[in-house]
Design brief:
Blueprint lengths: L4 E12 L2 E12 L3 E5 L6 H8 L7 E6 L2 E2 L5 H7 L1 E4 L11 H8 L8 H10 L1 H5 L10 H13 L5 E5 L7 H16 L3 E5 L3 H7 L2 E6 L2 E7 H6 L1 H7 L5
Parallel strand pairs: 3-8, 3-9, 6-7, 7-8
Antiparallel strand pairs: 1-2, 1-4, 4-5, 9-10
Helix pairs in contact: 3-6
Length: about 240
């Protein structure tokens, strides 16, 4: 690992029974970057994120964070190391309040960091307004804000964001993407899975395109935005 590389996947393979979902991918994320993983449904994006978090176990290959191998660790230890995961589908606890959901995000900390809670409320004022409201009564966009806020409560060095724009009104998508940039500006490295390729590439420094479990393309955001292959497949432009 070079001194700038915070996170690295090498030759990762993941299977569901006899079905190969991830077929030997390799990627790196440098400290302070926003890196996006693009791809169609079924490409393996969420599988990759869940394997990083050790919610799924790799068949083979290496996942390293700050030089430490992750594949033999339990999921809760990944959080303690400094990687937090905001999952696809938000997965908030509907019968708990907004603030109780945020408290759960701090489970890996020895005590609640009030400064982090204040920062989350500063990022997402709607959460502060609704802090005593049951999470199940929030809109989809507000639940996404809560899922991201909850993942920040463990003070991560690297944040995994899986489909933050999925099923959300466009006006709230813009707000959430602005806040992802703000999170990055505060020094949190971001690995972003996103189907909205244009929005993701405008936000990210670099990207990887997954196609049926393999990396089909990689490059800077500018390179991928200019790629005819990406334009045709993900940006709705034909040549």
């Amino acid at each position: 690992m070079s001194s700038d590389v915070l996170f690295e996947i090498k030759d990762l393979e993941v299977s569901y029974g006899s079905i190969a979902a991830i077929k030997g991918i390799s990627l790196t994320v440098n400290k302070g970057e926003i890196v996006t993983i693009l791809g169609a449904n079924g490409a393996g994006k969420t599988t990759t994120m869940r394997t990083i978090s050790q919610l799924l176990k790799a068949k083979s290959g290496s996942i390293r964070f700050k030089g430490q191998e992750l594949t033999s660790l339990a999921a809760h230890k990944i959080v303690k190391l400094g990687i937090s995961h905001s999952p696809e589908g938000r997965r908030v606890f509907g019968i708990l309040t907004v603030e109780e959901n945020l408290m759960l995000g701090a489970f890996s900390q020895s005590r609640l960091d009030k400064t982090t809670l204040e920062w989350v409320y500063e990022l997402f004022p709607r959460l502060q307004e609704r802090r005593k409201q049951l999470a199940g009564t929030l809109s989809g966009g507000e639940q996404q804000m809560l899922a991201i806020g909850r993942s920040l409560m463990s003070n991560p060095e690297m944040l995994l964001l899986d489909e933050p724009s999925l099923g959300i009104a466009p006006i709230l998508v813009k707000a959430i993407f602005r806040q992802i940039k703000e999170i990055s500006n505060k020094g949190v490295t971001v690995l972003l899975v996103e189907q909205n390729a244009k929005a993701a590439l405008k936000l990210a420094d670099r990207g990887y395109v997954l196609d049926v479990g393999k990396i089909a393309l990689s490059g800077t955001s500018a390179e991928l935005l200019a790629s005819e292959r990406v334009q045709e497949a993900y940006l709705g432009k034909k040549h």
